[in-house]
Amino acid sequence: SLTAGVVAVQGDVEEHAAAIERAARAHDREVTVHEIGDSGLAPDCDLLAMPGGESTTISRLLHNEGIAAEIQAHVAAGKPLLATCAGLIVASSDAADDRVEELGVLDVTVERNAFGRQKDSFEAPLDVAGLDEPYPAVFIRAPAIDDVGEATVLASWDDRPVAVKQGPVVGTAFHPELTPDSRIHGLAFFENDDATIPALEEP
Ligand code: GLN
What we know:
The protein is an alpha/beta fold. It has one domain (2-189): Class I glutamine amidotransferase (GATase) domain (Rossmann fold). It has five helices and eleven strands; from the N terminus they run βαββααβαβββββββα. The strands form three sheets. A seven-stranded mixed beta sheet has the order 2-1-3-4-11-10-9, with helices on both faces. Strands 5-8 form a two-stranded antiparallel ribbon. A hairpin with a 2-residue loop joins strand 10 (160-166) and strand 11. Helix 1 packs across helix 5. The mean pLDDT is 96. Bound molecules: glutamine (GLN). Glutamine (GLN) binds next to helix 4.
């Protein structure tokens, strides 16, 4: 069985855990999900999710708790990471905000709260590279991605990238854990050719 971790500083931790379980089931894999609130847990994980919340708080706590370096090592080892909303901001290389200590595991520049106050939250049918049908994407004070660097754009909204992939890392400006549709978790963890997870054992 695979071991998954959901970074549990803030945000939709249980929803991410449930989405990982749904995606695993859809790919005939077994997974045990742990909450990562302390250092020493992430190194045992085959895959990691980093939820949204408040990026300044999340990044500070990750560095204080020693989890930041473990996430960086996870990505350096080629293991998959899905970073969503504030998680994407924290994963980026530049959030254009001194209060965010970026992990730099995704070579992108982001703009926090990019979609305007009147459109604080919205749902949009998003065309995502690798998915046959549009994905119902929930945006909540979402960031946009300005400079994609070496990353590949998987989806855009209003002409701005909102989902990217770079090697084992997938980042989304929206919240794939808030809909029953687990295809983004599937893409990030089980259909990511650039990431390594233990192979299914032969019966
Ligand atoms: N606006 C938040 C930030 O900039 C992100 C919003 C979210 O994660 N829903 O940190």
